[in-house]
UniProtKB/TrEMBL annotation:
It comes from the Eukaryota. Transmembrane segments: none annotated. Keywords: Repeat. InterPro entries: PPR_At4g14850-like_plant, PPR_rpt, TPR-like_helical_dom_sf. The keyword Membrane does not apply. Signal peptide: none annotated. It holds the Pfam family PPR_3. This is Pentatricopeptide repeat-containing protein.
Length: 102
């Protein structure tokens, strides 16, 4: 990963840009690798923008189950997530679970 070779230390905003670029290019493996590097290698705590980039990518690639699983694993309270469009997606997913169970 070139960012490490260049000796550059990314910040939250840099990581949003990298994840957004991966999202636009549909590079799921690279996006997930950068996400893990951000958390473990640089110890940057993911914020809603980082998660949203990945969720956008999953949805754009038609990986709705992956998107919903990822949303459920996020460390954000639902109230914090309500201002984000993905909150509605999570609510629809939960509704789907209730309908399927009946």
């Amino acid at each position: 990963m070139k960012i490490r070779l260049a000796g550059v230390r990314p910040n939250e905003i840099t990581c949003v840009g990298i994840l957004s670029a991966c999202t636009n290019a549909g590079m799921i493996d690279r996006a997930l690798a950068y996400f893990e590097m951000m958390k473990k290698g640089y110890r940057i705590k993911p914020v809603i923008d980082h998660h949203s980039s990945l969720v956008d990518m999953f949805i754009g690639l038609g990986l709705l189950d992956v998107a919903f699983d990822f949303i459920k694993k996020m460390n954000f309270e639902i109230n914090m997530f309500r201002s984000n469009p993905h909150c509605r997606l999570l609510e629809l997913w939960n509704l789907r679970d209730r309908v399927v169970c009946r």
